[in-house]
Amino acid sequence: YAKVEGESNSSDAEATPEQPHEEQLEQLQEQQLQEQPGQQQQQQQPPEQQPQARTAGKKTKKKTRFIYHIGPSKTATTTVQDDLKDLSENGMLIRDKYMFWGRGHSGNQHNGTKLRVLGGLWENDCLRSYAEYRNQTRETPQEDGSLNASSQLAAESSIGIPPCIQRIRHLLDTMHEDGISLILSDEAYSYRARFGRTAIYRNQEYLANIQHILKDWDITILATYRRPVEWMLSCIKESNSKDLTGTGENAKWAAEGGVKPRQTWGMLTSWVQMSISSCETEEFCKTQTNKYVFSDASHYLLEKAGFNFEFLTVHGKEHISQQLMCSIITDAPASCQFLRGKSEGTVTNARSMAWYNYNAIVYAAAHRGLITKGMQANKTRIEMADDLAKYHSRVINKTLADLPLACPKETELEQMLNFSLGVEKRMFPELYVSPQGELEHRAAFHKVAITKREFCSVDAKRLFAHQESWEGFLQSLNQTWEGDETKKRDWSIRDDWEHMDSWEYVLEK
């Protein structure tokens, strides 16, 4: 919706005859929908006495902001949403003339309409109906601005303004008139399904229609950056955390239908291969897991469609919620001040990557009979894993690095680091060359790969060699195993281990 070169700056009142006729049709249908018996006389008024749909005065009115935070998952989205919920409930947001709707917090409403109706704005069914409506009304209006015959017929056809769009526009109009800006946050809008060839982010018509609906708003699409490999590790952690409440497959003993935990390096390399393949086969790079898509893809597609796109970062010195309410949003002083005075919240997911190795050890020990059926009846798998983690780290003061491990080769680690650096360099070249860029990225990768050994898996064959009981096994943990015997790896904890195929990812890609 850029201004055409040479376009005049006439007032809205002067521009009304040139108004695209589909907007005229929308206004006409809305008037018909809202029409009451007593309004007929008002419609008979001369044009100069009727209120204009748009006035020259409105053009100078400050636009309300529409900020849409799309995640992706595993980038502190829950933290942002919880802080926004607090700001909403304690009245700080509305004091700043903002309202929030987000994943898990959909009860907020304005003038009796719940904000969750806005979800339809990004749904294929709603946008498809609106596209059909707009496509039927694209004939050129007559010189005097009135609708021609075909457009008049279209206005009376069975395809009207979709109800979902009517609800959305009604809510947006009332909020805009009241000067209320919006913050939406839902990481589901970075799920893989959004990036299919017929899905919303690849459909330029749908994206243009969203902009048309929000033409009176200052739109910002917001995503969060996290170093790619760290992001993938968090996704692996989530996968292995599935249903750890006692009923899920990662929480049950094998006899109850439990499964072997998936190992980190195999999952990680398969996702990296998928991501690299997308760079070679698509018009854009799509860093991805089996469920989520990284912010590089949404950034490319939505910025290409004309949206203003900005980033938060989990690696900044400023808390991520403060980045949103103090830096991205600069007209919310009450909310900003509240967040800056707020103490750090409690970490809700305290399990480390090492814990999932302890869960794998417990599963393998039960498979070998070291954890007897009687022991399994008395304690859950999760309880046994918690006990083992506490004993190993707190009682005998050992770490994962003290166990016999099977780890990626140095050349494989270098390839993985190059992949992660390459994504950052492509997305944020200025950050990459800054002091907070490549050097910090390399240091963080070294900590994960070498110090914490988070890419490694426990070598079950060496770990359980000559062990006949769980008690004897616990006593054996006082020793430290040396080296990484790659030729003697035992992948019995997970039979479907696959080594990374030969691949290269250099920084220039």
Automatic annotation (TrEMBL):
Residues 1-78 are annotated as: Disordered. Residues 56-66 have a biased composition (Basic residues). It comes from the Eukaryota. Residues 26-52 have a biased composition (Low complexity). This is Sulfotransferase domain-containing protein. It comes from Craspedostauros australis.
